[in-house]
Amino acid sequence: MSDAKVFILVTHADGKADDSAFELAAASGRLFPGASTTALVVGSGVDAVCQEVATVFGEVWKFDQAALAYPNAELLRPLLVKVLPAGSRVLLAHNTFGLDLGPGLSVKLGAAYVPDVVGAEGLDGATLKVIRQEFAGQVSAHVACDISKGAVVSVRPGAFKPEPSGATGGPVVDRSTEATGLSARRSFVEVISAEAGDIDITKEDVLVSVGRGIGEQENLALVEALAEAMGAGLSCSRPIVDAKWLEKPRQVGTSGQTVKPKVYLALGISGSFQHMGGIKGNPFMIAVNKNPKAPIFQVASVGVVADLLELVPALTEKIKKGK
Amino acid sequence: MDILVCVKRVPDSAENEISVAAGGADIHRDDLVYSVNEWDNYAVEEAIQITERLGGTVTVVSLGDSEAEEVVRREMAMGAGQGLLLVDGAFTGSDGLGIATILKAAVQKGRYDLILTGAQADDGGGQVGGMLAALLDWPFASLVNRIDVNEGKPLRIGREIEGGAQEVSDIETPCVLSIQTGINEPRYVGIRGIRKVASVEIPVLDATALGVETASVGSAGAKVRRVDYFVPVAGAGAEMLTGSTDELAGKLLDLLKAKGGIK
Ligand SMILES: Cc1cc2nc3c(=O)[nH]c(=O)nc-3n(C[C@H](O)[C@H](O)[C@H](O)COP(=O)(O)OP(=O)(O)OC[C@H]3O[C@@H](n4cnc5c(N)ncnc54)[C@H](O)[C@@H]3O)c2cc1C
Ligand SMILES: Nc1ncnc2c1ncn2[C@@H]1O[C@H](COP(=O)(O)O)[C@@H](O)[C@H]1O
Known about the structure:
The structure holds two protein chains of two kinds. By secondary structure, chain A is α/β, with parallel strands linked by helices. Chain A contains eight helices and 18 strands. Chain A folds into two domains: 6-179, HUPs (Rossmann fold), CATH 3.40.50; 201-322, Rossmann fold, CATH 3.40.50. Chain A is 25% helix and 29% strand. Chain B has helices at 38-54, 68-78, 96-107, 128-136, 191-196, 207-210, 218-221, 245-258, and strands at residues 2-6, 9-11, 34-36, 57-63, 82-86, 114-118, 140-148, 155-160, 166-171, 175-179, 204-205, 224-230, 239-241. Chain B starts with a strand and ends in a 5-residue tail after the last helix. In chain B, 47% of the residues are buried. At the A-B interface, helix 3, helix 4, strand 7, strand 9 and strand 10 of A face helix 3, helix 4, strand 7, strand 8 and strand 9 of B. The site of adenosine monophosphate has 21 residues of chain B, from helix 1, strand 4, helix 3, strand 6 and helix 4.
């Protein structure tokens, strides 16, 4: 089955393919070297997306139907089960859509499910070897999968950098007529966009960002005082918003805001990929964490292993004196 | 509404330094602080709130070793009426599909209108809920951050999507939903609450009692298997500062000044 095809599910919005489409093309080359790639573009009015991704895949299958205007995983799953050949290798992004579609798809295809892959280790016959992370990124694991009956692999956004694919640009095959008569027990109603607050952390050059390591709500005052002394904006990780200690518009990450500061001071934040996914533009990042194994130290520019409850007040004092 | 909530006992990654044990066969397990998976706690709270409003039952189920009882009891102390433990040596080494297969057997021993799972657990897979739904052939939605129950109608649910937007859908019951953090504020359980449920009987089911084929679960049935744990060779990594608190504060002040971090 070494010549089994690789199918890549393209997510898109407003007539543009998501960055993940190009990352998945790169991931395919690393996970399944030399395999031919077929992009799956499902939606309504998707010609532009098909043209855009045709440049990096061997071919594109287009499923264009008004009923598929919103990407409802429950509708897509039976369509994919119908059109994908037995033993297919399917790649999708480990994002909110991939999490919705992938696990059930693997069951219905009888294929192995390999979630949240961050690296490729090699393909040996029907054994695929990949790298994953566990315990919020504190340790990595080599994982071996029997893909003799096919595989659904979800790939962590940002883990594979897009690269020239070598594909010369394939044809777009219109298979829309196969995407009819679909029904699901889940129906789309609407999308409610995120509340816009009067706080806009996306415009700040300097962010002081606080995570669960702050421990108690009362301790937030320490971080607020530091941000004020620095003249910086105050942002946070998700648990701080879940606990309702700070407002949602201050949350950095894939399900919060995308920020582009020049300096990012992360206090008591472990560095989950969902948090780091909201930080763009390669800022100068300082991480303070009491755990030397915290994954954030792998990406920060400067790290300090310390108790933030001691270090933060000391730093605030120094700044006030130094001004 | 009768609700089953799947909960897992996990090392608390906020509390622990996780490190790889000799040879990578496992992590160091001594001295680890365990707790209920963060996401599952929100799922249990949601189930309890639904039944408090509309009546019905909440059952908490966990697959694990005998220690899993501790988290089931904790969640019962929150207000779940029933607990269920799935324990069998043959379950060790199950992949996501194996776990979903065992949970399916447990589901079929009861009658539930709704199954809640967490969005993800300690190995970050985010897979068991979606697989369980597919095995049961029930509809599924992931990352649910709102559930409105209207008697006799489908559930109206919100899913959290990128950027914090919410995708609203209607979903028929019975169904499986994976719950995202922040959907509610899980209640606090004190020692007294746990003591109250200390003597409640929690049934323990093994493979035979569940009618699960042992060849299809555990390491025997796993298509996906961890070879070893390892510590990645750090890329550039951070430049680590050392010194007393005062020295560290001084170094950070200089760095912040140099990089335009102080206005
Ligand atoms: C679909 C999805 C979307 C998500 N979106 C986001 C998102 O947009 N943004 C986001 O942030 N998360 C998001 N998450 C959650 C994410 O997976 C992590 O759970 C979260 O980022 C962890 O936040 P944290 O680093 O503050 O907490 P933890 O991971 O608990 O880390 C706390 C850190 O503080 C350290 N610490 C503890 N005490 C101290 C002390 N006294 N001094 C110094 N350090 C200390 C600990 O060592 C630890 O490293 C999402 C998850 C999912 C499933
Ligand atoms: N051993 C287990 N026992 C009970 N529920 C589990 C178990 N493993 C996973 N789950 C459920 O599946 C969810 C997602 O876990 P995972 O797919 O492992 O990331 C968890 O939040 C639990 O609700």
